[in-house]
Amino acid sequence: MGAGTGQRQEGAAPAVTVHSVAQAAAALAAAGQGGVPGGVLLLSAPGAAGSLGAPWFLAMIADAATAQPGVPHRAALDCGDAPGQALAALRAGARLLILDPACPGFAAVAAAAAETGAKVWPARPASLDLGRSDPGRPGGRRRLAAWLAGGGR
């Protein structure tokens, strides 16, 4: 079910990997309907910073949040092992990045992020990948609701 590494941490917002505005909006709607404390973490696909870019991801999240106002959420852009993409994402306004800690430049990116109030995580959290589930169908909605409620651990 999860596409991330490891288990979801107790008390952490559940993470959902989203690939489109519709998927991000569905995750926000499900979190809002389910009263998920702390909201939801909207996570990009692995390495999305290098393929789609930060502006696209940030616009996708903004559009989804407009469609589902008032639902608490954070967005994390996966930069893979590309520190240049991570720095570009920071310049574009990203506040939470995932970057491989083994890549050259990780420390410099983390320092730059700290200066702007952003964060860099060294690994993806466990997540439900909506690229493998259709939240527009009843089974997909149930799976998403169960994940957000904590049943996906």
Description:
With 153 residues, this protein is α/β, with parallel strands linked by helices. The chain has a single domain (15-29, 38-151), classed as Alpha-Beta Barrel (TIM Barrel). It is built from six helices and six strands. It has helices at residues 21-33, 48-51, 54-67, 83-92, 106-116, 138-151; strands at 15-17, 40-43, 73-78, 96-98, 119-121, 127-129. Strands 5-4-3-2-1-6 form a six-stranded parallel beta sheet. The radius of gyration is 15 Å and the shape is elongated. Residues 1-11 have low confidence and may be disordered.
Annotation keywords:
153 residues; alpha/beta; TIM Barrel; six-stranded parallel sheet; 6 helices; elongated
Brief synopsis:
The chain is an alpha/beta fold and 153 residues long. The protein has helices at residues 21-33, 48-51, 54-67, 83-92, 106-116, 138-151, and strands spanning 15-17, 40-43, 73-78, 96-98, 119-121, 127-129.
